[in-house]
Specification:
Elongation Factor Tu (Ef-tu), domain 3; about 625 residues; 18 helices; 8-stranded antiparallel beta sheet; about 30% strand
Length: about 625
């Protein structure tokens, strides 16, 4: 079956009580028996997920996920329900509404399924009066829900009654259903993993977003393994790519099926981070018992089932039945979760569905008592993409890199005004002022220095920020603030010496010039300058910047004329190999000065050390 451009790919999930004819109906519609396990054939019930597809029209294709109805297998039903666009809600005309009918209905509602068709199966087994009575019961059951206006079609998988009408209603519903987004990052929750002869490891799932291509590098979350897509099949046919909304089989290289579990996710390599907690809006069913704070639960999200705990963020003791609340869900194992994902919550014991909701935030933000948690999470759950992005950026005083912002939101399109990172404009203006103030303060206490070293300034203003953000703030501060090499100064700053500082400058220079290569102690020269220590060191720095003095190491400073004399002595001996004693004879210095001078000459590439000797390079 060739793929037609513009085809609507709609995933249809069956739902309903055990033995109400879901699998038989899918077979009657598609010709495919979705019961694939021997045990299912033997027992006559669906235990695990089954799959089939139907090309309703040249441009409309349905992928059926046949889910189990027995209460013991609801966990498998949940693994398939996450990707459903449209529900085929099955109610047997000879039994009407039963316990799993109600549970599957609540699960579809909590997962945000917005459209469906109701099939009244086994219509050949009842008379017209009983069929009409069942219709009335169904009307009452779905009143006020997403299925209130759904068509009701009486069918029989045995006789073929109503099947053409059902196909027509499914086509109408499919054309009206909201499609998954084929742009952006791809995600494939895995519901099966197995070995296929001649291919190796194969995983299947419903592509819930994006596009996946053959030979693409992918990542298996939360395991963190990078894998290659060896091949793709869409609805049983080989394909170069799979798009959102399509049932997809992925042939993976370099991994065994035993290393893959249902609930893992294939997605963009290196794009996201698995999480162990998220904040969400939770709706508790009216039929549930009160949910206590920190209660253990079974969480179903995507195709995964994970043990978790629910903390009520409003600090109440319990959530009442039928109520909703902002919660933090802590997972017992990491999972790939993104904002907007739907989930189902089941009691830890007994295991029954009690509620569900939608993920709002995965940042794990630590809240203060004064924080407006409901307001924050409302923006992250219901706000526009721009509002969500602006809030997350505003919460990072030192900025946030673009890749992390994508990982926190799952958004594919985020404007990048500053390149690979973001910072709130108001925060940037605040930091600009702080930076200028710090430079001004430095000049006040270090008037003889040309400016503050960049790294020192960064540690004062943006200690933990990325270098790119610091550079941006420096650019914002221009032209008031100027960069001179590795120092930053105010544009108006000039070093002007006072009379006593000029006198100290001459005294210091003379002391070093007179000493030649046997330089005096720096501390002694500073002490003899007649200035207090801070100003004395400032004058020394001026001489060093001007090149009148040269720092050999922390304890040794020479006058520039002494360094020139030293270079001349070595230049006259170019290519010569020598030892320390010979150097002492040439220069007339003691070993105390000879070793640091030679190490200085090595750094300046005048000499090079070769074992116990040195060779003159220039």
């Amino acid at each position: 079956m060739s793929r037609i451009p513009g085809t609507r790919n709609i995933i249809v999930g069956t739902a309903g009580h055990i033995d109400h004819g879901k699998t038989s109906l899918v077979k009657a519609l598609t010709g495919t028996d979705a019961d694939r396990l021997a045990e299912e054939k033997r027992r006559g019930i669906t235990i695990d997920l089954g799959f089939a597809h139907l090309q309703l029209a040249p441009d409309v294709r349905l992928g059926f996920i046949d889910v189990p109805g027995h209460e013991r297998f609801v966990r498998n039903m949940l693994a398939g329900a996450a990707g459903v666009d449209l529900v085929l809600f099955v109610i047997a005309a000879d039994e009407s509404i039963k316990p799993q009918t109600r549970e599957h209905f609540e699960i579809c509602r909590l997962l945000g399924v917005q459209a469906g068709v109701i099939a009244l199966t086994k219509a050949d087994l009842v008379d017209a009066d009983l069929l009409e009575l069942v219709r009335l019961e169904v009307d009452e059951f779905v009143a006020g829900s997403f299925l209130e206006n759904a068509p009701r079609v009486a069918v029989s998988s045995t006789t073929g009654l109503g099947l053409e009408e059902l196909r027509a209603e499914l086509e109408r519903a499919a054309r009206a259903a909201r499609q998954k987004i084929a742009e952006g990052w791809f995600r494939l929750p895995i519901d099966r993993a197995f070995t296929m002869k001649g291919f190796g490891t194969v995983v299947t799932g419903t592509l819930i977003s994006g596009t996946l291509r053959r030979d693409q590098e992918v990542e298996l979350y939360p395991a963190g393994r990078r894998l290659r897509v060896r091949g793709l099949h869409v609805y049983g046919e080989a394909s170069d790519k799979a798009r959102a909304g399509e049932r997809t089989a992925v042939n993976l290289a370099d991994i065994e099926p035993g290393d893959i579990q249902r609930g893992m996710v294939l997605s963009e390599a290196g794009r996201f981070q698995p999480v162990r907690m998220f904040d969400a809006r939770l709706d508790l069913l009216a039929s549930a018992k009160p949910l206590k704070n920190n209660a253990p639960i079974h969480l179903h999200i995507g195709a995964a089932e994970i043990g978790a705990e629910v903390r009520l963020l409003d600090r109440t003791a319990a959530l009442k039945p039928g109520a909703a609340a902002w919660v933090r869900i802590t997972l017992r194992e990491p999972a790939l979760v993104l904002p907007g994902d739907r989930f189902i919550v089941r009691m830890f014991s007994p295991v029954v569905t009690i509620g569900g909701g939608m993920v709002a935030d995965i940042s794990g933000r630590r809240y203060k008592k004064t924080d407006d948690v409901p307001g924050r999470l409302s923006v992250l759950l219901h706000g526009t993409p721009r509002e969500r992005v602006e809030l997350l950026i505003a919460e990072r005083p030192n900025g946030i890199v673009h890749s992390e912002l994508i990982a926190l939101t799952g958004l594919a399109q985020i404007a990048q005004p500053n390149g690979a990172w973001h910072i709130a404009p108001s925060r940037a203006a605040e930091l600009k002022q702080k930076l200028s103030d710090e430079v001004r303060k430095f000049h006040k206490t270090n008037s003889l220095l040309p400016g503050i070293p960049k790294q020192d300034l960064k540690s004062r203003v943006l200690k933990d920020a990325a270098p790119e953000i610091f550079r941006h703030i420096l650019e914002l501060a221009a032209p008031e603030v100027v960069q001179d090499g590795e120092v930053v100064r105010l544009k108006t700053h000039r070093v002007v010496l006072k009379v006593d500082e000029e006198q100290a400058r001459a005294t210091m220079e003379a002391a070093f010039e007179t000493a030649g290569m046997t330089a005096p102690s720096v501390q002694e020269v500073l002490k003899a300058s007649g200035l207090e220590p801070v100003r004395a060191r400032g004058v020394l720095q001026i001489l060093l910047r001007e090149g009148r003095l040269v720092r050999v190491n922390d304890d040794l400073v020479l006058h520039a004329t002494a360094v020139d004399q030293l270079r001349a002595i070595l230049t006259a001996r170019k290519g010569l190999r020598f030892a320390v004693p010979e150097f002492k004879d040439w220069t007339g210095v003691s070993r105390k000065y000879a070793i640091p001078l030679l190490e200085f000459l090595d750094r300046e590439h005048v000499t090079v050390r070769e074992g116990e000797l040195r060779r003159v390079l220039a």
